[in-house]
């Protein structure tokens, strides 16, 4: 008989205390996200009702987003949002894993000290007030200093509970030693300090350190070897990296997806998808694919789709006779579409990193999404064997009823994409309207209550803070790459076989395929897109088309080891071995690689590939 779950009162005092601190940070993040939404919606409402926005709204929204990321920094270091690579560490014997865990926490300590002490230094140095709000500019950096201090507390507390207090003390001493080394003049000068930063970050990643803090620690250590980015400048770059109005769309799209799932609208999409394709061979698997396409128009987060599919679609697949690993592979494979089919958080990150047009990227995502959907449908059809799960063909009346039921969720995607594409709203305004739409639709259908709304806010705030911290931590890293003129070296690499469009496209994709094995998707976009895009433009490739292919390439790595975030999300929820799911996903991975090849060939050989609806219809 299984033991009853322990009550909070049965847990050690230290564990309860950490839980209270983490929950408090989560609720504070939820409150900040709620206020952020109200500020942006107030500005949107005034703009369309009165004809003028609120002068102070944009600046206040950016400051709130900075505060959200700072509050979420401890969560991004210690929770499932930490983006830790543990595949290599898990291969070690037990003593080796314990040592690696201490070293990983030491790197997290180093990164937290950079935020805490570097932020405090900036607070002492920066003067002046903000342009509109009139608040001291130092407040933005003070929030990161506080966030870094809280991260240090949470990291060490967690290490003490997971291992022991002596282990936590060792991690603190080692992290402090790395911090002192980074701020010391070693006398060793490296021609490309960004190489030191890259190697240090890679070492931290392999040891299982949280990715954003590994990037911060790497940028910090480069200073000891001639890097031109002192610690206060690292924090300034980090804060500047998240102080972009466009990035406000990320927490809103995450929140809209959470509300749709909590409100049951996502399940209506599944029923509509089943009515469309459930009668085909491997009908339930094809239903999962179509449902993912429909959910993509409302979420923009592949991780959110993977989590939903693992809870809803995967059990149904297993019940119909699919082996659990194959069911998990199907859910993970189709979930990658969410960051391709608009609205897409990956395209927002790309636009923030390269200043490419968000609207054009989103339309390009439709074209790429159609190709990838067809490839996945073929891959599912050819790979599913020994399972008879086709349902009777739905009647016209049944399809109509399921369509009407799914309209509230489908309408969200239409509102967002049409509004952005035709310039009716900005990306950030569209994302806020998506949240308002999801709230109103679910409340009218009486599928949401106050508890589920608060839970959605809490979860979305944590995810948004983790993504935001990754974007911020990548900014100083990108600065070092720019100072060392790595983009020119990268351009030389991708033109090694000639400067023609096809050669540049092939070599760029090889670089992305290799880098994507070891980098988180967001970090890869932030670091590699600014390096590869100039070479692509010089070769005559359209920057929008190249950006779409870049995102497709990196999203495929959601299914590849050792990171394979989509596989890890699904296998974790289903309690399966990730290795088994990685093996089961190979047929779908092969079909996606073929689709990538088709897209690359089309972009390289046909630079005039249409990227807007008007051009597409004219071409057809």
From TrEMBL:
<feature type="transmembrane region" description="Helical">
    <location>
        <begin position="585"/>
        <end position="606"/>
    </location>
</feature>
<feature type="transmembrane region" description="Helical">
    <location>
        <begin position="403"/>
        <end position="424"/>
    </location>
</feature>
<feature type="transmembrane region" description="Helical">
    <location>
        <begin position="460"/>
        <end position="483"/>
    </location>
</feature>
<feature type="transmembrane region" description="Helical">
    <location>
        <begin position="188"/>
        <end position="207"/>
    </location>
</feature>
<feature type="transmembrane region" description="Helical">
    <location>
        <begin position="521"/>
        <end position="541"/>
    </location>
</feature>
<feature type="transmembrane region" description="Helical">
    <location>
        <begin position="245"/>
        <end position="266"/>
    </location>
</feature>
<keyword id="KW-0997">Cell inner membrane</keyword>
<keyword id="KW-0472">Membrane</keyword>
<dbReference type="InterPro" id="IPR055348">
    <property type="entry name" value="DctQ"/>
</dbReference>
<feature type="transmembrane region" description="Helical">
    <location>
        <begin position="139"/>
        <end position="157"/>
    </location>
</feature>
<feature type="transmembrane region" description="Helical">
    <location>
        <begin position="489"/>
        <end position="514"/>
    </location>
</feature>
<keyword id="KW-0812">Transmembrane</keyword>
<feature type="transmembrane region" description="Helical">
    <location>
        <begin position="329"/>
        <end position="353"/>
    </location>
</feature>
<feature type="domain" description="Tripartite ATP-independent periplasmic transporters DctQ component">
    <location>
        <begin position="36"/>
        <end position="158"/>
    </location>
</feature>
<keyword id="KW-0813">Transport</keyword>
<protein>
    <submittedName>
        <fullName>TRAP transporter large permease subunit</fullName>
    </submittedName>
</protein>
<feature type="transmembrane region" description="Helical">
    <location>
        <begin position="286"/>
        <end position="308"/>
    </location>
</feature>
<feature type="transmembrane region" description="Helical">
    <location>
        <begin position="27"/>
        <end position="49"/>
    </location>
</feature>
<comment type="function">
    <text>Part of the tripartite ATP-independent periplasmic (TRAP) transport system.</text>
</comment>
<dbReference type="Pfam" id="PF06808">
    <property type="entry name" value="DctM"/>
</dbReference>
<feature type="transmembrane region" description="Helical">
    <location>
        <begin position="430"/>
        <end position="448"/>
    </location>
</feature>
<dbReference type="Pfam" id="PF04290">
    <property type="entry name" value="DctQ"/>
</dbReference>
<feature type="transmembrane region" description="Helical">
    <location>
        <begin position="61"/>
        <end position="82"/>
    </location>
</feature>
<keyword id="KW-1003">Cell membrane</keyword>
<dbReference type="InterPro" id="IPR004681">
    <property type="entry name" value="TRAP_DctM"/>
</dbReference>
<feature type="domain" description="TRAP C4-dicarboxylate transport system permease DctM subunit">
    <location>
        <begin position="201"/>
        <end position="601"/>
    </location>
</feature>
<feature type="transmembrane region" description="Helical">
    <location>
        <begin position="547"/>
        <end position="573"/>
    </location>
</feature>
<feature type="transmembrane region" description="Helical">
    <location>
        <begin position="102"/>
        <end position="127"/>
    </location>
</feature>
<dbReference type="InterPro" id="IPR010656">
    <property type="entry name" value="DctM"/>
</dbReference>
<keyword id="KW-1133">Transmembrane helix</keyword>
<feature type="transmembrane region" description="Helical">
    <location>
        <begin position="163"/>
        <end position="181"/>
    </location>
</feature>
<feature type="transmembrane region" description="Helical">
    <location>
        <begin position="359"/>
        <end position="382"/>
    </location>
</feature>
